[in-house]
Design goal:
Layout lengths: L8 E5 L16 H4 L2 E6 L4 E4 L8 E5 L6 E6 L2 E6 L2 E6 L3 E4 L9 E5 L3 E5 L8 E6 L6 E5 L2 E6 L2 E6 L3 E5 L18 E7 L6 E10 L2 E11 L5 E2 L9 E2 L1 E10 L10 E3 L4 E4 L10 E3 L9 E3 L7 E5 L14 E4 L8 E3 L1 H10 L7 E6 L7
Parallel strand pairs: 16-29, 19-20, 21-22, 27-28
Antiparallel strand pairs: 1-2, 2-8, 3-4, 5-6, 6-7, 9-15, 10-11, 12-13, 13-14, 16-17, 17-18, 21-26, 21-29, 23-24, 23-25, 26-27
């Protein structure tokens, strides 16, 4: 689950100039090119994570008013210098004021001059604190005007962008990039397993942003006790494979923040699994009054939070019922489950306007999609 992060100021001094050892740009450029941007976090606490996502471990936290150096932005995460190591904070809780261009983390910066002076400030009149050579890769913090601010041997330095080539690093191809059956879906939950017989699963979420797929989350999950089903049947303890739309979200507590239609579970709520009932594979309330002979109780810890996977919408008798994405870490009776934290995180992320789907498959059969 995406944790709330601390309100604090993250200050980044923008890129400054470095002059090459030959070819002077001339004059004190600090005032012309330097700018200061303050990144102020709006939540009560800000976790610093080891990677750009809530699935990465927390390596610490920062407090309100603390100044941190923002190095780059990757998706909705800021990469920062945290106690001498790289950390990440969510930009959702950070308000930036000022003007700057943060380098994308997927960009490579390479020196093109035979020798390039690294200076203490943004101008040729600043002292040289060292140099870099042709072909050397630079750790760029930010850019302002024609100057890059860099991390140089553990201290801040400045180089002229005239002698640095910035090139985008090709992003690795995502599995969803090859899918042909997604239609207008802009959010995908992908549940995979090594084979049909394992109950262990890998859960990944993807979202299309500006026409390109981005990976959002990766988590461990579990399937039915007997793994995936080639052809699911009621009571077989297997999870169905296939591509399905997302139904109603539910939980035993208040809506955690999902945009999906949300239904709070009561003590009388059940899901009918009686294949002979006209209410088969529907959410109903007790008492049965002869309407079914068996139904699954919804008021249980596994359903603290979850959503309906729209499986067997035709309600074909015996084909399987009550297929959910819910809380669990051992195995299920045919649903898909992961930790409560991840379930809530996914619920908050899901947006019905983006036509989300869930795909469940052994890895070897992903080419079907």
């Amino acid at each position: 689950m995406k944790k709330l992060m601390v309100g604090m100021a993250l200050t980044a001094t923008l890129a400054t100039a470095v002059t090459p050892g030959f070819g002077s740009i001339g004059g004190n450029q600090e005032k012309a090119y330097a700018a200061t941007v303050t990144y102020k976090v709006t939540a009560s606490k800000l976790n610093v994570r080891s990677g750009a996502g809530t699935t990465y471990g927390i390596i610490g936290s920062v407090v309100k008013g603390q100044a941190l150096s923002v190095m780059s932005k990757s998706g909705s995460w800021y990469k920062i210098n945290y106690n001498g190591r790289m950390g990440y904070v969510s930009s959702d809780y950070v308000q930036a004021s000022g003007t700057t261009t943060l380098p994308a983390e997927s960009t490579t910066y390479t020196v093109t001059a035979s020798m390039l002076n690294v200076r203490s400030g943004a101008g040729t009149n600043y002292a040289s604190i060292g140099s870099v050579t042709k072909g050397q890769k630079l750790s760029v913090v930010s850019k302002s005007g024609s100057w890059y601010k860099i991390n140089y041997n553990g201290r801040t330095g400045y180089v002229s962008s005239d002698y640095v080539q910035a090139s985008a690093t090709a992003s690795p191809k995502l599995v969803v990039d090859s899918f042909k059956t997604l239609g207008n879906a802009q959010q995908v939950i992908l549940v995979t397993a090594d084979n049909y017989d394992t109950k262990s699963a890998k859960i990944q979420t993807f979202e299309k942003v500006d026409g390109k797929w981005k990976q959002v989350l990766t988590a461990n999950g579990v399937l039915g006790q007997k793994g995936f089903a080639l052809s699911k049947k009621e009571g077989d303890m297997e999870s169905p494979t296939g591509k399905y739309t997302i139904g109603t979200a539910f939980g035993r507590y208040a809506n955690p923040g999902t945009k999906l239609p949300y239904r709070k579970i009561t003590a009388n709520d059940v899901w009918v699994d009686d294949s002979k009932s006209s209410l088969y594979n529907t959410w109903q309330q007790k008492p049965a009054n002869g309407r079914w002979t068996s139904a699954e109780n919804m008021d249980i810890p596994a359903y603290d939070y979850g959503f309906v996977i729209n499986y067997n919408e035709s309600r074909t008798p015996g084909k399987g019922s009550a297929i959910f994405f819910h809380v669990g870490t051992n195995y299920t009776a045919g649903c898909t489950a992961t930790s409560k934290e991840q379930v809530v995180s996914i619920l908050k992320w899901l947006n019905p306007e983006k036509n989300p789907v869930i795909i469940q498959s052994p890895v070897s059969e992903l080419d079907k999609y």
